[in-house]
Structure formats: C-alpha cells, structure tokens
Amino acid sequence: MKNILYKNTNISFTDSGKGKAIVLLHGFLENKKMWAEYIELFSEKYRVVAIDLLGHGDSDCLGYVHTMEDNANAVNAVLENLNIEKAIIVGHSMGGYVGLAFAELHPEKIQKLVLLNSTSKEDSEERKLNRTRAIKAVKQNYVSFVSLAIANLFSENNRTRLAEEIEKVKTEALKTPLQGIIASQEGMKIRKDREELVRKNLFPIILILGKKDPVLNYEESLSQIEDTTAELVSFEDGHMSQIENNEELKTVLLDFFQ
User: Fold this and answer.
1) Contact present, 12 and 59 (Cβ < 8 Å)
2) One digit per residue, pLDDT tens: the chain, 258 residues?
3) Separation CA 74–CA 24 (nearest Å)
4) Quick one: which of 242, 156, 230, 157 has its CA closest to 195?
5) DSSP for 98-123?
6) What is the C-alpha separation between 67 and 137, in angstroms, rounded?
7) CB under 8 Å to 147, separation ≥6 — which residues?
8) Within 13 Å, how many C-alpha atoms sit on residue 245's CB side?
9) Rounded to whole angstroms, how far apart are CA atoms 210 and 193?
10) Which of 22, 75, 160, 180 is the most buried (most CB within 10 A)?
C-alpha cells in the first residue's frame, strides 16, 4: 500500500505488476480491497493501480462535498506520482462517475474506459431527493443505513446465495467514515451529465450493466450509448457484477484490455 498527499489529504493506493496501466476505481461504500482478486489476475500482464477515493478506505476526507472532479484530480495526482501518462480506467458505480470526470479533465490520459454498473447520466430529481434522504438516514442510524444500502445493491435472487459475500462487503463498508458517506452523496447529487462525452467517441468505452440492477434502471441506461461506438455487455444480475458475475466479468475485462 502506498500514499500521497493531495491538497494536504492522504490518498491511498496500491501499485502492482508491469506493463500497460489499468486503474481500478471502486464505488460508493467500497474501497480498493474490493479489487483484490482482480488485481492478482490482471497484474500478471498489466500494471494495476487501485485507488481509494476520497473519504473511503485509507484515503482521508477532503471536505464536506467530494465532487467527482475532486476525486478525478486526486486520481490524476496518483498517476502523476507514478509517472503514468496513459491508462485504462475501470470504474464501478461511483468510480465510473469519477472515471468520466477524469476523462473530461484529462482526455489525453485515457486509453479506454470501463463503466461498470455505472452511468454517464446525471441524477434524476427523484434520485437527488433520495440522496438527501439517505444523508438524513445515515446521520440517524449509521449501521442500519450501511447494512441496508449494501444488501440493496444485489439482485433479490442473489441475496441468499451470496449471503457470505454480502457480509464481507458490509464489513468493509462499515469502515467508511460518516463524513465520507455524506460528502460522496453530496458530490454524486451535483455531478454533471456526461452523456455527450460518451457520444464523442474519443476512446473505446464499454458499458457493463446488470439487467436486475436495483440502482440503475437497465432500459433507461441503454439510451446513453445509442449511436455511439461504445460496447455493451449485459449480465442477468444486479449492481455488483464484480461479485455476482465474477468469472464472466474477468473474461470481459481481459478481452477489452487487449
């Protein structure tokens, strides 16, 4: 594990393997540990960097609102520290929002982009209201909010089958500080719509979706890649493809990296 200071804020990351750079960005309530077995596999052929986003894992909070641009600039600071000029970005959920912000700020540094259970669309008004409610809920009962939030990321049919894995995800999620949760919700709530960036076809993009995703409506998500060169991969499960569709996802990603 390595660290740098970005705006006097500690940013934690790992750096494994050699070759073409792959940057892994986790989602909300997750951290770089979610990528452990992917790092082990990918680092056989590639240089793999996994970063804890602001207020998650071993990275500190920067303020009361962590915008996607704040996170993208922290990612850029890590890449500059490692002398990585170009990378493939893999972003899960919120990590995808950060990947898109990074692509907008530093298009010359993006080789390819993976939007894993993520979207280039901004929050709907209903979603913004839900984030405001979530902030209130987590202030009232932190443990209950986190536990419910994690369980609700999986498709209903997987909540029993993957009970052990879900508990592991909850354990890591409960390490996320309250300020980190609130600041990320505020940042996601105000994030820009970046559908136009996808439509520009500046670099290869793959959109990976779960048909039973409780967070992102599958049918609505399809419109963002209409008339683009972006590739679509659909799985039959929920928002946590890295767990629910583990082996299939590894194959898809390795194919895309080539």
Assistant:
1) yes
2) 999 999 999 999 999 999 999 999 999 999 999 999 999 999 999 999 999 999 999 999 999 999 999 999 999 999 999 999 999 999 999 999 999 999 999 999 999 999 999 999 999 999 999 999 999 999 999 999 999 999 999 999 999 999 999 999 999 999 999 999 999 999 999 999 999 999 999 999 999 999 999 999 999 999 999 999 999 999 999 999 999 999 999 999 999 999
3) 13
4) 230
5) HHHHHHHH-GGGEEEEEEES--SSPP
6) 21
7) 170, 174
8) 24
9) 21
10) 75
pTM summary value? 0.97
Helix, strand and coil percent figures for the chain, each rounded to 5? 45, 20, 35
Question: Mapping DSSP to helix (H, G, I), strand (E, B) and coil, where does residue 189 land?
Answer: helix
Contact by Cβ (8 Å): 24, 38: yes
Distance CA 56, CA 165 (A): 19
In the block, tokens 């609130």 appear at 182
Cβ neighbours, 10 Å, residue 133 = 11
Give residue 84's identity as a one-letter amino acid code: I
Of residues 109, 47, 88, 96, the one with CA closest to residue 253 = 88
- Rg (C-alpha) for the chain, rounded Å, is 17
Length of the chain: 258
Residue with tokens 């820009």: 192
**The two three-digit tokens of residue 227, written as one number:** 């008339």
User: CA 19, 120, 201 angle in degrees (round to 5)?
Assistant: 60
Q: Please list, residue by residue across 142-157, b when 16 or more beta carbons sit within 10 angstroms of its beta carbon and e when fewer do.
A: eeebbbebbbebbbee
